[in-house]
Structure of Crp/Fnr family transcriptional regulator:
Amino acid sequence: MNTANALKKTALFSGMDDEKVALFASKSLVRHYEKGEELFAMGDQAASFFFIIDGWVKLYRITREGEESIINVFAPHETFAEAAVFGPMQRYPVNAQAVEDTTLLEIPRSLFVETIRADSDLAISILGAIAAKQHYLIQQIEQLTVREAPQRIGTFLLRLCPPGATRNIEVALPYDKSLIARRLNIQPETFSRAFKKLEPHGVHLQGRVAVIEEIGRLAAFCDVEDRDKPC
């Protein structure tokens, strides 16, 4: 995989020229984590944010009752922890764990800040990306409170589709599908039934791979205007 090309497709890096993206790809660190290994803990210094080359990562907190609350899950070619890196506290507000064997690109905050200071146009582009992500978070809240379980699953699948794809897309899911269920506030025991309700809308589950016949058809069912969500 060409890491620079993959980075360029994320919201945060899409406004950069190819030379700058290549610089980030070359100066960042590649890290490997085994399934179940912690990336960082809540309260740790946020010195870097991350791009997933391969694998899945969950962000979570532990409630007062000692239960795990899933905040978000991230798939290959998504970035996460940017808000912590650029926030005033510069501390991670959640825990992060690899839910499968995972390879990440660890992008230092210092490198990003240095680049922004030298390029005001880039700073404006990043503000736009952050605004887009905030809009996405609002959509997520709406999804969990208004939409039915099949629509929540469909919207999640649309987020994982590669840019530009329109038909016959295969989306690999994590081995532990209950992770997705918990993220979408769906009871794990009803997840399979909810997923099956997507079949009339052109979505079929084959093992751990979801096959989407047509993006537009699924987007219409989920009432999504634009399937491309910020990573």
